[in-house]
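Backbone-to-sequence.
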């Protein structure tokens, strides 16, 4: 296969590679053969370990199965680690010693934090489905693992991705040593060996058309993809009500049940399987007859990954897509990605079968989202990430401010009440002496000729505030200052005639009588 030919040219010489390769091109064998070749030239007690990082549990299990198959005649110990299962069984594998470690980022970090997996003795690193790791939010965990590995010059690194976008290239040049770029064009992959059909149909008629297609083609087995977990459960239950035994698989399914379903579809005990995109890249089924996109994928890359479940290893297969009014908007991007138009087939009325589940109430429970790193901490079922909670910040004791050495000296505060009390007990001459001592020798009571205005009175005038007689709070000051004479109010005078205005108005009124 092209991907293996291009990869072996570099990896067998010890050079890093990052490869653009779609599903079903033989990339798993490409990095496994490289690992076995390197280990075959090393003594068992001096071997450097190999670490393979996968985004999903299904893909990790698939890689383990192929590794056991290819290395069945080699003295190589292989272990797979993922979430959703108890730790005890996986801990026994680590205690026995392993040469190849396969796992998802979450469980690998958990065992590393417990001191049961040492990343410092890794000699070969494989990152599979790198773009999927980014899409699922594993980039921080991936960087965390990469920082604990030996320097990039001391290990062989192989990175595989469906696309070589800027994220993949940035990661490659940051953590790989002089990597070779290998790009396999989409025309060389699985799309060419698959017969594709596209049906335009309304949302309410999709199940009826699906039943008609299954009745017409009568496939040996079929894999049906939906965009949501809720829809996967609904489609599986509606198929069962119409006489098609069916199972479903998704991320929320417990791991033992997931493995049971995968084994059932591989052994052909399960004929029809409904899955989400989580299983699209990690599900390997030999001789899969039909792939149905019940929901047209919103991501063009997922379309290739979905239909890549059939026509594997040079075989042929069939893929049917139902484009409803909800997801038809992704059709243009899909056709641009695969560089061809999907052949449209217009269904006749006879192709629509009777849906026995129409109008029936389906009991579909929504399960909480889980991943391979979440734990319940016992506080009302709250989900935690396995990390210790952030400690609460305690308030620091208040420290009094210290006066600066260059600060101006503070003015002494005077006791106003005590001063007023003393002023009441003084005579008039004593008060004048007190104010002259306080404000200066130029102080004199107001109203005296040549007396200057006291500072406190000038401040009151400058501030625009005037105090009415008898309202001052300082009774001593009011006793010293002479009282102002009372103002006598006179009637208004008319300026032109020199007589009171009231008398003038009265004379004018008398003239008109």
């Amino acid at each position: 296969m092209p991907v293996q030919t291009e990869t072996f040219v570099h990896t067998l010489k010890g050079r890093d590679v990052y490869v653009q390769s779609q599903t079903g091109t033989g990339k798993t064998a490409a990095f496994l053969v490289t690992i076995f070749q390197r280990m075959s030239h090393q003594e068992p007690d001096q071997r450097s370990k190999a670490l393979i990082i996968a985004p999903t549990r299904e893909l990790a299990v698939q890689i383990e199965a192929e590794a056991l198959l290819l290395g069945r005649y080699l003295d190589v110990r292989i272990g797979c680690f993922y979430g959703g299962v108890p730790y005890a069984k996986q801990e026994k594998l680590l205690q026995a010693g392993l040469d190849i470690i396969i796992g998802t980022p979450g469980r690998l970090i958990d065992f590393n934090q417990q001191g049961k997996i040492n990343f410092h003795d890794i000699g070969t690193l494989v990152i599979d489905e790198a773009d999927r790791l980014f899409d699922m939010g594993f980039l921080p965990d991936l960087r965390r693992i990469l920082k604990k590995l030996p320097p990039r010059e001391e290990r062989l690194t192989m990175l595989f991705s469906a696309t070589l976008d800027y994220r993949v290239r940035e990661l490659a040049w940051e953590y790989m040593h002089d990597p070779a770029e290998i790009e396999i064009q989409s025309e060389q992959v699985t799309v060419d060996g698959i017969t594709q059909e596209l049906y335009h149909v309304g949302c309410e008629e999709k199940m009826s058309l699906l039943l008609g297609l299954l009745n017409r083609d009568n496939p040996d087995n079929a894999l049906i993809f939906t965009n949501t977990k809720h829809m996967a459960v609904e489609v599986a239950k509606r198929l069962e009500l119409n006489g098609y035994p069916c199972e479903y698989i998704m991320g929320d399914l417990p791991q033992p049940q997931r493995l049971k379903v995968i084994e059932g579809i591989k052994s052909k005990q399960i004929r029809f399987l409904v899955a989400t995109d989580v299983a699209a890249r990690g599900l390997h089924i030999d001789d899969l007859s039909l792939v149905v996109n019940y929901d047209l994928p919103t991501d063009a890359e997922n379309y290739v990954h979905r239909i890549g479940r059939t026509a594997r290893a040079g075989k042929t297969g069939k893929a049917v897509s139902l484009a409803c009014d909800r997801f038809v908007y992704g059709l243009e991007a899909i056709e641009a990605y695969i560089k061809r138009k999907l052949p449209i087939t217009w269904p006749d009325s006879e192709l629509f079968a009777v849906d026995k589940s129409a109008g029936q109430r389906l009991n579909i429970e929504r399960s909480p989202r889980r991943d391979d790193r979440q734990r319940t901490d016992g506080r009302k079922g709250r989900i935690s990430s396995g990390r210790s909670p952030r400690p609460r910040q305690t308030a620091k004791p208040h420290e009094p401010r210290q006066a600066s050495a260059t600060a101006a000296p503070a003015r002494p505060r005077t006791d106003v009440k005590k001063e007023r009390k003393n002023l009441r007990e003084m005579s008039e001459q004593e008060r004048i002496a007190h104010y002259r001592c306080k404000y200066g020798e130029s102080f004199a009571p107001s109203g005296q000729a040549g007396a200057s205005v006291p500072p406190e009175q000038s401040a009151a005038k400058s501030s625009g505030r005037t105090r009415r007689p008898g309202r001052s709070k300082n009774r001593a000051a009011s006793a010293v200052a002479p009282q102002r004479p009372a103002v006598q109010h006179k009637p208004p005078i008319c300026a032109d005639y020199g007589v009171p205005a009231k008398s003038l108005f009265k004379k004018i009124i008398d003239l008109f009588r």
